[in-house]
Amino acid sequence: MNLSSTQRRTLTWIALGLAGLGLLWLLAPVLTPFLIAAVLAYALHPAVERMAARGVPRALAVIAVEVLVLLAFTAVLLLMVPILSKEIPLLRERIPVLAKGAKESLEPWLAHYGVNVSLDIDSLQQMVLKALNANFEDWLSTILASARIGGSIVLTVLGAMVLVPVALFYLLMDWSRLTERVQELVPPRLRPGFHGFMSECDTVLGQYLRGQLLVMLAMAIFYSVGLALFRFDLAVPVGVFTGMAMFIPYLGFGLGMLLALLAGVLQFASWYGLIAVAVIYGLGQILEGFFLTPRLVGERIGLSPLMVIFALLAFGHLFGFAGVLVALPLSAVLAVAVGRLRSWYLQSRLYGA
Prior knowledge:
Blueprint lengths: L4 H22 L1 H26 L4 H21 L1 H33 L8 H12 L3 H14 L1 H23 L1 H10 L6 H39 L5 H10 L6 H18 L2 H28 L6 H42 L2 H4 L1
């Protein structure tokens, strides 16, 4: 079968696209820190360009922007300090009460269903208290031992913590040069269409970033106010941490909810804390998942609420954590591409025939 030059070019581009997706799938664990750095570089390079345009040396502008980002990230992590400094001593005091309550509640409940067991709560209580009373050297030796056993996870996390700032620095330093090199790879006859496509993608991605920031701010306020209404002592740090950590889909919400559950159990020592957290975080998940994200993020990038949910699940399944990070930005680019393909199809002879 003889193919025209246009058909051969189309098949070549399709093959290159499939090869790129396959490479991304194979290297997803390795690419994760570079993808994080690339997303941050895309979001931060306008600030660097503005500072450089005002006469600030580019290296100094990059360092200033990166330091501000690291300080903001550190501030979010420091929100955990008042949480842990208050909850760990309180946990030591409440362990005997919680252990006794668990024994008195679980054994009759299990016996009701025909499971007669005697829970060794005293041993578990002593083990937890020993862990909580351990000094820094004991914690450090435990961490080092676990690193020797399952060091790949520890090394991956530590490597990402070092690699992301380094990669971000070089990406911000060479951003203009990198974008020019990418544009040079595009055949001259296709550059006008390519520039229009990338300009539209840039607009959509900017709207996505602004929408995501609005969602994080709204949810930080919601969780802080909600926990305060239920009389949580740590309402503000737990609520703000949960909202700010939502830039990592699922993981940020889950970590914030665990902190809230721990705070509720320790403060109230009853079902009240668990019920309060279930109500607040259940309503928060509904508000964020079905209203805020689809409208502030999904509608800004041209995706319906159903497509936002599908994109997060699909990219997460295919590429793991790296896929979750880039799911909505890549979906925004795909939405622009699909819109252009639809316009081309409606104007083609294939549709008019």
